[in-house]
From TrEMBL:
InterPro entries per the UniProt record, alphabetical: Endonuclease_MobA/VirD2 (IPR005094)
Biased composition (Basic residues): 307-318
Source organism, top-level taxon: Bacteria
Domain MobA/VirD2-like nuclease: 17-143
One Pfam family of this chain: Relaxase
Segments of this protein annotated with the region Disordered: 293-318
Protein name: MobA/VirD2-like nuclease domain-containing protein
Length: 318
């Protein structure tokens, strides 16, 4: 099961999307008139006005199940409730809607980040926290877990430009890293693809403290692209390449086991490469290769591109 949190949506826009989608089925609602999205939005907005300083009062998330996985409505409703509880979104209005318009079954959850007492609900790092809660619920309900990124299965056209750029950087690092020996090598290869590498230094010293990547107007820390692309992990991988040693030391136990199996198979099936070639390149490429994921990306109707298109169609008002 995969969690996706969509920031910056209005109650009206999100309510219309989750309710009017063909095949949408309302599973549960508390504190709002869930049978009509306009009335639902009014109820959400009325409560959010108890805390005017809470600018982003609309919480909107989707929980996506693996293709072919079909838990009962009761199970999905319970999972959604526990998901909200795990995020600390309690004592507030919410709506749970099932969508069946894609190959994978998924839920949309709307909630008010201003609770019934007029207090603001904390939303710091809520996207990351949502993924962690989803992982816990996946184990608890014995669901099929997410296995990683798969750019071939990612609908880039359904993402915001910022999300598209983040995936472009991810793919560029994956493609470039096996041929690099230093951060400078990686920097040059990325620059050729229009991606700039930025370093953070400790105080006034030359000691590196962090790494970021910029494409266009978007800038991401290495760890925001992928945990393996933090400064420390990139340095470990590059050091292993320079010393022609096993890079598995910086991997998790599960990843290390996979790497050793790949390394063993590579030794048995390939002849020695010339000395100027990277001998462990096949191993790193296998480790960095995206694997299958059930995620379906952000629905196109929820993107800025879709909203801009709708505005253009309306034309100037008279």
């Amino acid at each position: 099961m995969v969690s996706n949190v969509f920031p910056g949506h209005s109650f009206y826009h999100a309510g219309r999307y989750v309710s009017k989608k063909p095949g949408a089925e309302l599973l549960d609602y508390v504190g709002v008139r869930g049978y009509d999205y306009k009335l639902m939005a009014e109820d959400f907005i009325t409560q959010s006005e108890l805390r005017p300083s809470k600018q982003k009062a609309c919480f909107h998330a989707a929980l996506s199940f693996y293709p072919g996985e079909k838990p009962t409505d009761e199970t999905m409703t319970q999972i959604a409730r526990e998901y909200l509880e795990g995020l600390g979104i309690v004592n507030t209005q919410y709506v749970i809607v099932k969508h069946t318009d894609k190959a994978h079954l998924h839920l949309h959850i709307l909630a008010n980040m201003v609770d019934n007492d007029g207090k603001a609900i904390k939303d710091g790092w809520i996207g990351l926290r949502g993924k962690k809660v989803a992982q816990q619920l996946t184990r608890k309900y014995k669901l099929i877990p997410a296995k990683g990124k798969n750019l071939d299965l990612t609908h880039l056209e359904a993402m915001s430009q910022s999300e598209v750029n983040r995936y472009k950087i991810y793919q560029a690092i994956v493609d470039s890293l096996p041929n690099c020996r230093s951060l400078q090598d990686l920097e040059l290869r990325l620059m050729a693809q229009g991606i700039h590498t930025l370093y953070k230094y400790k105080g006034q010293t030359q000691e590196l403290q962090g790494i970021s990547f910029r494409i266009g107007q978007d800038r991401f820390k290495g760890s925001q692209i992928d945990r393996k692309f933090s400064l420390g992990n990139l340095q470990k991988a590059l050091a292993a390449m320079r010393q022609n040693r096993d890079i598995t030391a910086w991997l998790s136990p599960k990843e290390r086991k996979k790497a050793l199996l790949i390394k063993s198979a590579t030794r048995q099936s390939t002849a020695p490469e010339p000395t100027h070639q990277v001998q462990l390149s096949p191993l790193i490429q296998a480790l960095l290769k995206p694997v299958e994921s059930e995620g379906g990306g952000v629905p196109y109707e929820l993107t800025d591109a879709y909203r801009r298109k709708k505005k253009k169609k309306k034309g100037p008002s008279l």
